[in-house]
Description:
Number of strands of chain B: 12
Oligomer: heterodimer
Order of helices and strands of chain B: EHEHEEHEHHEEEHEHEHHEHEH
Strand content of chain B: 15-25%
Structural class of chain A: alpha/beta
Order of helices and strands of chain A: EHEHEHEEHHEHEHEHH
CATH class of chain B: Alpha Beta
Number of domains of chain B: 1
CATH topology of chain A: Rossmann fold
Amino acid sequence: MTSTISTVGILGAGRVGMALARQALKAGYDVKIATAKPPTEIALMVDLLAPGATSVSADTAARDSDVVILALPLGKYRTLHPENFAGQIVIDAMNYWAPTDGTIAEFEDEASSSEVVQRFLPDARVVRSLSHIGYHELEEQALPPGDPERQALALAGNDAEARRLVAGFIDRLGYDPFDAGELAAARNFDGGTPIFGGRMRLDEMRRLLGEAPLVGEAAE
Amino acid sequence: MELGIYSFGDVQRDPATRKLGSTAEATRNLLEAIKLADEVGLDYFGIGEHHTYEMPASAAPVILAAAASVTKTIRLGSAVSVISTDDPVRIFQQFATVSALSNGRAEITAGRGSSTESFPLFGYSLNDYDELYAEKLDLLLAVNAAERVTWSGKFRPALDDALVVPRPDSGSLPIWLGTGGNPQSSVRAALLGLPISYAIIGGQAARFAPLAELYRRAAQQVQLPGASVKVSVASPGFVGDDAKAAKDMWYGHWYEIMATVGKIRGFVPPSRAHFEHEANGGGALFVGGPEEIAERIVALHRSLGHMRQFFQMDVGQVPQKDFLHAIELLGTRVKPLVDAELAANPSKPEVGND
């Protein structure tokens, strides 16, 4: 079982996937990017937009990484192969936006879309995070630990160890992690909440999301 | 370098009663703006297809046809045409008609559009979003390539040696691919042999430089002729006599739009501090005085090498008189400054493409 994160696999090579790749590279991680296409087809794109990252197959990115980030359009989540994610720490950064994606019945109820994704990937340790900040803001607003202006990013998941490791990852990306607890808590920072697209420091987020433990401070 | 305007035909708002003006008035205002843009020497005016009360420019080629008869040199285009929910044969015919009426000044920018009102309006499903776009683009390029078309697809009956007229004098229309920065779109434009138009509407504008490089490298790989490899940029912007007054005034209108979109998509509207970050330096909002805007356009040109930049000024019910004044300043003050600077100190040839 993973005890630290050094390799980050990203599924999706769109705006979100590329921005995450660059930010993870900047933080010193080994980054793999994959789409449903063969790696050679995205190699030029990856070389120019996330220099230093490796283009791999979707199977490789999912299996051979310490953490896998889902950055594909949410409507395509069923193209993932659940067997590749057994035991894996998976960060779900996908959002459901009916006005632009069309209405998808299974995402219309109260639950966070990440709960649906966790049901589809039953053996994955899904953590919802990196979903309430814009992709270019993620790159432009990162700050070192201790900076008074540093923003917080929320995370939620059912596996405490996965949450702890993801918190450490977020810290290295340039944000204060806020552990909101179980995956169901993700609905408190999904679209339509003041967290979604809002910029706030850790103390402000704690006021809004309650007094969950700050696991990030204990992470590596 | 070419400079221009784009608009979604925003309606006015009565400052006293706060009531929105009529969509018919907005349509006439748009024609007035295009006419002025031509008179002050701007190169391009684009109309972005939208279907909301606040942004009623749903029939761009009709307005452009009217504009063709009252303008002399300005190029007239869409920014963008939502091709996924229209008939590409009809889009082509309408713009080819504008081309005939304007002696070759019509252009199409094909895109997905950022809003989706046209899907239910014309009976399309958002679940076919990607497939529709790919198929419609394919047909649009086919009718642009030849006046007799044989084609088949999934979403409409096949065409068997069908005649599509009128034809532009030059045989075909300039068709751009419009994109908001999805990396695949830059590759797609190059593979299709199309010029690319980037909508840079937030964040730091220069982050599109690697995308433009990706587009050029992909074009090189498929040996696209140099003349077809073109980059343009659409961004929000506004020019006032005084930089601070322009920012103060325009912020309120921009906030209006962002709050409206935010309500629909569930995000918190941006703060004034966020606005200041993006409306200065390398930010995507080109709002300020003439000198400042000229400098910022040139600075972006140094990294992106775009041959055209055009601005959406009339967002969120900017009063028509302020819109017109900003158009005048862009043509009479900003454009000469940009021309002079790029003539004196051209950008490096590897990023220039005009």
